[in-house]
Amino acid sequence: MKLKTILTTCLFLSAAFALRAQDNATDSLRHSFGRMSVASSRSTSTPYADTLDTDNPGVKVVLFNNGTFRYIKDPKAVADSKVFTEHWDTRSVNPYHDEKPLPDHFSLWIVDTLDSYCCPNKTTPSSKFGFRHGRRHQGIDLPYPTGTPVYAAFDGKVRVSDYVGGYGNLVIIRHANGLETYYGHLSRRDVEPGDWVNAGDVIGLGGSTGRSSGPHLHFETRYKGYAFDPTWLIDFETGTLRHRLLRFRSWYFNPNSRYVQTMDDEDEIYRSDEEERLLAEEQAKKEAAARAAAERAAKKYYTVRSGDTLGKIARKNGTTVRALCRLNGIKETTTLQIGRRLRVR
Question: Is 54 exposed, middle or buried (0-12, 13-18, 19+ CB in 10 A)?
Answer without folding.
Answer: exposed
